[in-house]
Amino acid sequence: MTKTDLNKNCCDGEPGCCTPAVSPIIMEKPARKITIDFLYLDLSVCTRCQGAGTSLDDALAEVAGVLAATGVEAAVNKVNVNTAARAEQYQFISSPAIRIDGRDIQLDVRESLCESCGDLCGDQVDCRVWVYQGQEYTVPPKGMIIEAILKAVYGGQPSAGNEPGAYVMPDNLRNFYAAMTRGIQMSEKPKVLFICSYNSARSQMAEALLRMLYGDRFDSYSAGVAASGVDLYAVQAMEQLGVDISEHCSKSLAELAGMEFDYVVTVCDAAREACPYFPGRQVLHHDFAKPSNQGSEEDIQASYARVRDELRAWIEKQFGTQSPGEDSV
What we know:
By secondary structure, the protein is α/β, with parallel strands linked by helices. It has helices spanning 47-62, 64-70, 84-90, 115-121, 142-153, 171-186, 202-214, 232-239, 269-274, 297-319; strands at 32-40, 72-80, 97-100, 103-104, 110-113, 126-132, 135-137, 191-196, 219-224, 261-266, 280-285. The protein folds into 2 domains: 32-182, Glutaredoxin (3-Layer(aba) Sandwich); 188-319, Rossmann fold.
């Protein structure tokens, strides 16, 4: 019979028995990052810039799962290249442009007459034509942007490069900036900016309503404390008045930096509280209820129509006179 040592506390040095278990050290791999720059001349009226912004947003939503699975963070910068100085800063060649890690996704520069930008500056202006799979488009197809993003994610390069060197501003852009400067100097129309939290519904409808009612007297703009996309129910509500805002883009205040406005209008209390100082000769405020997206389809549409009509009545009261006045909250 084998005598058992009752004082024995381990098992003769077998691996892993007496030695305290040590948890393996897991080194977190730093997230990769790609930078996407969306450069444009105008989002207020230019349908090509608006469409490019929408396509980019749709493409990012489509590849969100891939980015998350591969640990890639996409930093998106939306830059309004509204001056010649900014064009030189970003070596801007054609509008709109989408760059990934500093490289343009468009192989070559093709342009055609853009009536929207022509209306904006009062002169003839060309905007970019996108070429994808042998076809020409005035708005970049979502698939084109997705392909460029995936190439960057999986180690490839976007279609074209912006090689460093002396920047020469194209005559097309030079003429645009000169025409805009002349227009600003000659224009007597006050600029009005409507602000809400996300530039998705109330401020979008307000911008369109002022343009519809008094576009001959005011230049109308809108933005949000942040940008989140244009609400489809707001689009439907404006369609009932024969106004199409389906190509509008949601904009943040940062995208309008450098612009000066005669009137800055906050259309909700949240925007007034969260909004940083924004230059304007006169600041107006009215708290419009947020349209409800609860209930039946008919209930939702009625809610948006009600807010639209309240906005219209307020705009008619405030801007239907020659001198918009202070409004009570």
